[in-house]
Amino acid sequence: METPAGYGVVLVTAGNIQEAEAIANALVEAKLAACVSLLPIHSIYTWQGKLH
Fold first, then answer.
1. Does the global pTM surpass 0.70?
2. For the segment 5-14, what is each residue's pLDDT rounded down to a tens digit?
3. Best CA proximity match to 24, nearest among 45, 48, 49
């Protein structure tokens, strides 16, 4: 398993909730983000392992 080079936080504004959700889904599906939180808090994420 590769060790990540680092972590970052990116804040982005969107014109409406639909646009924000589209951006969030695209980032998570492309594995460019492990977790995206929308305000008010609404998280979209993927697990990096098996659930037991």
1. no
2. 777 888 898 9
3. 45
